[in-house]
Amino acid sequence: MKTEKPLTYVVLLCFSVVGFMYLANIDEQDDIHIFMKSWEEKSSSNGNFRFSSSHEPVSDFKEKCSPISNIMYVKTHKTGSTTIQSILYRYGFSRNLSFVFRRQNKKNGHIRYTAVTKDSPRKMFLPVLGNGNCSFAGYNISAVHVVHNRPVMETFMNPGAKYITIIRNPASQLISAFLFFHLYRGIKGNSTEEKLFKFMNGTKWRRGHYGRNSQLVDLGLSKSNFDNDTKIKERIQQLSEQMDLVLISDYFEESLVLLKQELCWSFEDLAFTVQNNRSRQKPPISPSLLEKMRKFNKADFLLYEHFNRTLWDKIAKQGHAFWEDLRKFKQVQEEVRLRCPNSTSVQKLKHANESSTFCDQYAGGLTLFKTLFKRQIRKC
Ligand SMILES: Nc1ncnc2c1ncn2[C@@H]1O[C@H](COP(=O)(O)OS(=O)(=O)O)[C@@H](OP(=O)(O)O)[C@H]1O
Fold this sequence. Notes:
Pfam families: Gal-3-0_sulfotr. By secondary structure, this protein is mainly alpha-helical. Helices cover 48% and strands 4% of the residues. It is built from 14 helices and 4 strands. The protein has helices at 4-42, 81-94, 150-154, 170-180, 192-201, 214-218, 229-242, 252-263, 267-270, 287-296, 298-318, 320-339, 358-363, 365-376, and strands at 71-74, 141-142, 162-167, 245-248. Strands 2-1-3-4 form a 4-stranded parallel β-sheet, with helices on both faces. Helix 5 (192-201) packs parallel to helix 10 and helix 7 packs parallel to helix 11. The structure holds 3'-phosphate-adenosine-5'-phosphate sulfate.
């Protein structure tokens, strides 16, 4: 008799814990179902909203290809990369695709500078979607910050994945990083320009990843090679062999027309609202500041010059059809802009749900991330 009471308590406790976990899970699943339902109601069959200016492309690639769902996107820093990420999240969400997310990083799933090798413990990541055993290979999309390493990422991605990234004019990218990551902290000066000069003349940049040549660092150049022109050029050459497309942020819509062709997507799939826009006025770049930045960020400038050239070579080869496609894409974009005038602020929405509007979903990089993360998380 004496043992019965504690046993009853233990049994009751177990039931309560299991019941609580079940309800918590139902709650999460409900959120996702409600969101999916509202998404479907507001969407056309491919998961996008209907545009009044929906157009077929002029270029004839559509007939020769089928849409690509396997994409390794290397998210670089301060390059407009979040805007591209939100496009990929929206596409993957509506098609139930699996994403590479770092399990421990619940805020955004980024891997960042953690070295990932073929032997890294896969439990660091969320498994691919599915009901059976946890699998850590055969992902459809990776869109988080990670240092580019194609042979390693090939062991994660579905075979045949397209490799893409985005880069930006290294002068404006450096200023964006300088302000966003507060690299000016502790540097005295009356203007951003003065502080930037001091930053570039000092050694503070050595302590982090964001201050110098950060685009090529994201794309796999070691800091120890910043002054080694041969290594820099070798890396750029490797990237041209390994990347299917390098987007240029300064020609965002032009780049997206090329991406549309690479992925065989529709204009609507690629419609976007600008993410992470800095509201502060952008400081001017004087000729002397630019000259200093060119020396300081030499590797990134070489990278930019190379891929800017190849982007325009690709465009030149297409002739009239490209410009007609661009005009049509701009019409779709105009519609998004009119319908979502304040779209950059909606990313503050905590979680995509039934009240998510057209604009929430178009801007919903972070919002959609949370939904995608919840959808993929399970114990392994
Ligand atoms: N479509 C488009 N075209 C041009 N520029 C764009 C676009 N989308 C985002 N941005 C600008 O990119 C900067 C933010 O970059 P990221 O999203 O890569 O930043 S982060 O590394 O993820 O924090 C940020 O730059 P700054 O405003 O100069 O800081 C954004 O304004």
